[in-house]
Amino acid sequence: MPHLFSIFLHLLFFKLVAPVTFRHHRYDELVRMLYKVHNECPYITRVYSIGRSVKGRHLYVLEFSDYPGTHEPLEPEVKYVGNMHGNEVLGRELLLQLSEFLCEEFRNGNQRIVRLVEGTRIHIMPSMNPDGYEVAAAQGPDTFGYLVGRNNANGVDLNRNFPDLNTYIYYNEKNGGPNHHLPLPDNWKSQSSENRTLCLFVFIPSLEPFSEHMLFDVSGAAVEPETKAVIQWIRSFNFVLSANLHGGAVVANYPYDKSFEHRVRGFRRTANTPTPDDKLFQKLAKVYSYAHGWMHQGWNCGDYFPDGITNGASWYSLSKGMQDFNYLHTNCFEITLELSCDKFPRQEELQREWLGNREALIQFLEQVHQGIKGMVLDENYNNVANAVISVSGINHDVTSGDHGDYFRLLLPGTYTVTATAPGFDPETLIVTVGPGEPKLVNFQLKRSILQATPKRKAPNSGHRNKVLPKKVQPQAAGKKELKMKQSQRGPA
Ligand SMILES: [Zn+2]
Question: Which positions are catalytic residues (predicted)?
Answer without folding.
Answer: 338 (proton donor/acceptor)
